[in-house]
Amino acid sequence: MPLLPVVKVIMENLQKVENNIRMFPVDPVPTTTQESLFIEHNKVLRNEHQFTYQNVNGLNHPGINQLERIKMSFESGLLDEVKYVLNLLIVLSNNNPSKINLKTDYTFLIDYLLKYLNEEKIEIDTKIDCLLIIRNLIQDVDNCQILSFNLQLRETILSFLNIYNNSIEHLNFFENDQFKELIKYALDVIENVSSYLSPVSKDDLIFNKLIEIFKINNDKNTSVTILRSISRYLYGSNSTKDASVLIDDEFINKTLGFLLLAINNNSIDDEIILTSLDFFIQYLSIKEENLSKLIDDKSRKLILEKILPILMIYKQNYKTEFNTQNLNYLRLYKRVLETNDFNTVILNIQDYPATFRELNSLKEPQRATAWLRCCFKPNKIGSITQIELWRAYEQQFDKKNLLPAVEFIKNVQYAFPQSKAKVIQLPNNEGRKFVIEGIEPRIEIVSLEKGKNDALVNYNNELTNASSQFYKPNLGRTEQVEIEKFNYGFNDYLKLNDINVSTCLLIKEILKYPDGVAMLTKYKFQFVENCIYVPDLLNHIYDDIIDCKMSFNLPASLAKIRVPRIHHTWANTYQCYPQHYFQPSTKEEIRELVVNARKLNKKIMVVGSGHSPSDLTMIANPVNEWLVNLDRFNKFLSEKPSKDGLYTDVTAEAGMRVYQLNELLEQKGLALQSLGSISEQSLAGIISTGTHGSSQYHGLVSSQIVNLKLINGLGEEVNCNSKENPEIFKAACLSLGKIGLITEVTIRAVPKFQLRSVQEVINIDTLIEKFDSIWTSDEFIRVWWFPYTKKCILWRASKSDEPISEPRQSWYGTTLGRLFYESLLYVCVKFFPRFTPYVESFVFSRQYGLVETFNKNGDVAVQKSVDGLNMDCLFHQYVDEWACPLTNGPDVIRLLSQSIEEGRKNKEYFVHSPIEIRCSNTTLPPHNEDEQDLSGRKPIDKGPIFGNTLRPFLDNTPKLNYLPIEQVTNSQLTLYINATIYRPFDYPTDYKKWFHIFEEIMNAADGKPHWAKNFDDSICTKEQMEKWFGEDLNSWRKVRKETDPDGVFLSGAQWLKRNGLVEPEYLEDSKNESTVE
């Protein structure tokens, strides 16, 4: 259609608008309306209901249907009728465009609409109505297909775009709202049909016109529509149809500029940012030359490099250590304390009448002891002069018969067992000063009960002045205070928005080309950091940014065993993001891994199921540390039965999971002698972390090991057992993954057996009263303690050949019960912690009832050994487990019970149930395993058949004297207690307060922590580790140096340094150490 006649008609219409001259047609009233009005306005007929009216105009004649009315209105050519139908079609097409199907009933419609769009004398409002109807109809897929191939429609739209492009010559027309509306609908039509016309050739007139309009347009919504249309036109472009050559620098610059709007995280321009990203994704997907054109300009390249990391986390409200807590800064430990570091004011007990009356009711020396504990607290770096202490006591009880001064001072050490009287020689011969070291005045008076509890637990290191808490006595050299780590797993609830996802897709397109890899490689760690901040990014881009093409080239043999994966603990308490995660399936691949790691100065972290809740297996540097998982190295190798048939030595690759071995042994009529609480670990894992069961006869699972093979840090295979390389064997049986990579395990199995168990409800007081006899009452014993109910579940089992009988179904073992329990815990930990005791009591009563059944009518079951020894760990959790002499158990349980009740009373902390209490016998006979006397033994007899009799260097259990099983008493047994705090639905529950108190009590009971659990480094310091393990730790270090002189297996330097397993200078020499969690 010629352009000038259209312009002429539109200008005439504009003149009419300006003169306010416009004709409004009178719409004819429908016959149905006439009938109702006739009756309504006729008073006589309205009230005469006895008459029946006939032959009234329109009565019982609805007229023609809607479709025929529309068709006849268009055929009539009457402008009023046409306008009426257009208004009707606007409503219909807007409400349900699929009802107006251009393929069936309304095939005629498009011709009429285009006719009035192209009619010169038709006013612009009618044209707008016609184009609006087309715009609405095109929202339906079938209609869109029909209209996309209508050449006349495309020519009409092109004529409107030409007017827009020449708007500078018709400024008053360009500023008109009607014309803007017309162009908006035209562009909407193009946006929808463009998907059916791709790929478009560079000669396409509409495509060319869109590019021209985009460059001169200043309207955001118009730019969004044009960008979408161009992106769809470019889809599927190839060498014969490649319109992307028309995209020039001006177009690219303007589109790239829209991405800069993302610098403001509160921007309201998300739509145009997203559309610009989608355009660049499509543009770069066509050919490599488009990327070269995009980044040839230095400014554009710089913008792209800087904006992509921002867009990856755009509008993500993630938490970091910098926006959730006070900003950490570097501190050095203090060598000397200041005067104001201590509280020197002794409070007057008379200001606390209730406590004062309670003290006065006591006789000496009990009153003096109680007064000291109420007014003072243990502090290993605190001190007070004896004269000052005596005068305070004398003044506060001046009307009472007091202890003599000498007796009073002697009594201080009774009140605080770890305090001591000391004489200090003053300088310059100025005399002597008599002091009591190890106590400090309290800031607030406490009750007699709390004072007693505080005096019996281990020293605290707290100073009154919070700013001076960073003091370390006997400091040899300057040392930096460790900064508290932040767990980025807290952000795992975040979900990506559309802009984040499109940014990931754009980065993928850029990385397809060498120039893109070269451009983004230097920003790799910024991308990884974003993945740490927003873990959901890992599902979209982690494989690409960590892929080999963004790092050094791995040997082909290693590249094929590399798998894209993040590593996290089973409970999601920690996670790390290694650059390389390997899963070898042969011994040759393992050896090559170690050799290449040594050659390239990399570290190896061996990981299994991740069931340990601590950061033991977390790497410190994602580039220089490789994770190796042996899940594919899991074949069963051999079995060697003994001559008497009492045991069979079975050999398997170390990556086999324990439950897989259990299934194979079951088929062969065999079973492991003892197990831990779960069987998800690998064979190498249960050995390396000191896994144990709960039995008066059995110790660590490693005591069942006959032989190990491992690849050391030199890439050599080493065979070790109690006779060959026994020192390496003792180090490897609790290696923590630092001695080498265990490849083969030979373990001593026995004929399979059932366990007949009795499960009873027992009061906590009964447990303490019967403590000495319970743990030697059967071969396998464990206790689950529910402190808020004052009750426990006692489980005892012995070997049996009775037929299987399943135990009672657990209430929270069902899907519904489990979900309900976890939901209750979630509400407690997040909103109402004080309800925790009630929830725990409710769950216990639902499962077990509240009546003690000890030695009465407990639940009896006969199960396969593995089913009886394993248990349900319920939910993700933090776990802190310690071992101490079993004879200290009653005192430990009393103190724990008092602490739990105090935490509940003061609402400081709440604990979760059950607290698991187990025992083991880690004493070993003085002879080797070949000298065991098995004469007369039957398959279901009690006691172990040792695979070896060597104690691992890092065994955390007490060193006790061995006695044959028939002579075992509590003095040979080790008590294990674990504190558990659940993470319902992975909520980051606070556990540190409770765990710290738990560890103070266990430490005071001569306990040591389990290596793989969440123990607190404020108590388990490297100095304390040296004290606990002494020469055994030095022996372990010596073996580690000999087997791995280059430190290939010294990954996770932070954990090693914190716990003193490796000399600090050895870790300081390791290269490129950094922290990424």
Structure description:
With 1077 residues, the protein is α+β, with helices and mostly antiparallel strands. The protein is built from 41 helices and 22 strands. The chain has an eight-stranded antiparallel beta sheet. Strand 4 and strand 5 form a beta hairpin. Helix 12 (205-216) packs antiparallel against helix 13, helix 19 crosses helix 22 (448-456) and helix 25 runs antiparallel to helix 26. The protein is elongated and about 120 Å long. The protein starts with a helix and ends in a 9-residue tail after the last helix. 38% of the residues are buried. Mean pLDDT is 85; it is low at 21-26, 168-174, 463-467 and 1068-1077. It catalyses: D-arabinono-1,4-lactone + O2 = dehydro-D-arabinono-1,4-lactone + H2O2 + H(+). It is found in: Mitochondrion membrane. Residues 368-443 form the RFX-type winged-helix domain. One of its GO terms (cellular component) is mitochondrial membrane.
Concise structural overview:
The protein contains 41 helices and 22 strands. Belongs to the oxygen-dependent FAD-linked oxidoreductase family.
Q: pLDDT under 50 segments (min length 5)? A: 21-26, 168-174, 463-467, 1068-1077
CATH architectural type of one domain: 2-Layer Sandwich
**CATH topology tier name of one domain:** Uridine Diphospho-n-acetylenolpyruvylglucosamine Reductase, domain 3
Major sheet: order of its strands? 18-15-17-16-20-21-19-22
Q: What number is the mean pLDDT?
A: 85
Biggest pleated sheet? 8 strands, antiparallel
Inertia-based shape: elongated
Name of the CATH class of one domain: Alpha Beta
Give the fraction of residues assigned to helices.
Answer: 40-55%
Overall strand count: 22
The number of helical segments is 41
Category by helix and strand content: alpha+beta
How far apart the termini lie comes to 67 Å
DSSP strand content:
5-15%
| Rg result | 41 Å
